[in-house]
Design a protein that fits this description.
mainly beta, four-stranded antiparallel beta sheet, about 40% strand
Length: about 250
């Protein structure tokens, strides 16, 4: 979408065995987009389309901005019946564009972990978080490429949900927040000025402003690997989460 005019353009053509595309992310040079693609068909021949998913897979693809030359860049884990989340998802790039981070789901437990691989080497994907931590939410690289930020839910969707980071070589897994299930951290993003392990991040968090269970977007200051300040940016009474801290002038 053009943020100045509101004009939109379709990037991917989900046809044939493609079921749907989602979770797009620009490459650092702005020339391509990574996205999740779910591939079928899922309905056995002769059965109605309301029949639960039976087979297929989910993987990460990269396409040019005009939608041309879509290519799969992660391995092909099979989906399990009934319809379950794709095996690989939530792609994000390193600042130099050479590495791809993503979340992989392990079945049948549906536990998730953070993986990193060179763009064109799916066989070299390495797992950076243990399955029992259940880490997810688009693992983002810091602007200097020295950290990756995400959340983990070791006890499941009911929480607790806390923020973690790790070095891109898989070392230094560190818990940034230490809340119980009463405070849930959601999707997060580094400030463009974040450097040497210190600076601001932005994150969705519950509880937020207004009724119980609401989420707001917070600005969070990190110093020496610890949260030292939180500022509620939205206070709208509506559910708000998954912010992305851009590096351009304000729009809208």
């Amino acid at each position: 979408m053009n943020p100045d005019t509101g004009d939109t353009r379709e990037i991917t053509q989900c046809t044939g065995r493609c079921v749907y595309d989602f979770d797009p992310d620009f490459t650092p040079d702005g020339r391509s987009i990574a996205f999740n693609r779910v591939v079928g068909p899922f309905v056995p021949k002769g059965e109605p389309r309301r029949t639960p998913v039976r087979k297929g897979y989910g993987a990460i693809f990269i396409s040019r901005l005009d939608g041309s030359n879509p290519r799969q860049v992660t391995e092909t884990p099979e989906l399990r019946p009934p319809h379950e989340p794709p095996g690989n998802g939530e792609p994000a790039f390193s600042p130099d564009g050479k590495m791809l981070s993503f979340v992989r789901t392990r079945f049948p437990e549906e536990r998730t972990a953070v993986f990193v691989q060179p763009i064109d080497s799916p066989e070299d994907a390495h797992q950076f978080t243990p399955w029992d931590l259940n880490c997810q939410e688009r693992p983002e690289f810091s602007p200097d490429g020295k950290l990756m930020l995400f959340r983990c839910l070791p006890e499941g969707e009911e929480g607790p949900s806390n923020l973690y980071w790790v070095h891109p070589d898989g070392t230094g897994l560190h818990t940034l927040t230490h809340e119980d299930a009463d405070k849930q951290y959601l999707g997060s993003s580094f400030s463009p000025s974040f450097s040497a392990g210190e600076g601001w991040i932005t994150v969705g968090r519950t509880p937020g402003y207004g009724e119980e269970g609401n989420a707001d977007v917070f600005r969070v200051l990190i110093e020496d690997g610890e949260v030292v300040r939180e500022v509620n940016l939205t206070k709208s009474g509506e559910w708000e989460s998954n912010p992305n801290w851009g590096c351009h002038q304000s729009v809208g």
